[in-house]
Each structure stands twice: as structure tokens, then as C-alpha cells.
Amino acid sequence: MSEPAVLESLPDRSMKRSEVEELGDSDAVDWVETLRTGNGPRRNMVNAWVIETSGTAHVLLYELDGWVSQGSFDTEGLTADEKLERGEDVLDF
């Protein structure tokens, strides 16, 4: 799935951790991992995450205008921990 298609498929609101995990169960999605969540009563709300589709991981951040791509990277040969680390690197620019 291309980056525009990934972004278009997401709701125009922040999502709960369980919603992100449900997306990971989709046939079109290879892997998902939460990078940042809210604090206090919003601790189950996801602020940033990585979604992998067709060998490309997209790092997404929720901003006032909705989900915004912070970048993407090729996942070939990377372990889940390496993908998570790379996602953190992209998010921290």
C-alpha cells in the first residue's frame, strides 16, 4: 500500500492503541508498532506509530490536521526491533 493510500485509510482523529493493533491484523498491513502515546487519561491514545505495508514502513504522527507522515523506510532485512529503532530515529529527526 502506498503512503497516500495508508494516510487516506486512517480516520481524521487520534486512535486508541487497540485500533492501531486492529489495523495490524489487516491483510494489507505487514506490521505495526506504537511509538508514542498520550499521558494521564490519554495514555491509551496513540500519538505516533509505524505501519509497514509492502516492504515499506511509514512513520505517522498525529497533529492538529490529522495523521501526517514523518517519513518512510525500506524494511527489507530488518528485525522488529530494528524497525522500531529506525521509526524512532525518523520521528526524532
Give the tags.
single chain, 93 residues, alpha+beta, 5-stranded antiparallel beta sheet, 3 helices, 29% helix
Task: Write up what this structure looks like.
By secondary structure, the protein is of the alpha+beta class. The protein contains three helices and five strands. Strands 1, 2, 3, 4 and 5 form a five-stranded antiparallel β-sheet that branches.
Structural class: alpha+beta
> Whole-number radius of gyration?
12 Å
Distance between the termini: 24 Å
What's the shape?
globular
- Low-confidence spans: pLDDT under 50, at least 5 residues? none
- Helix residue percentage: 25-40%
Strand content: 35-45%
> What's the average pLDDT?
89
- DSSP helix count? 3
State the assembly state of the protein chains.
single chain
- Report the count of strand segments: 5
Biggest sheet record? 5 strands, antiparallel
Q: Would you list the SSEs in sequence order as H and E?
A: HEHEEEEH
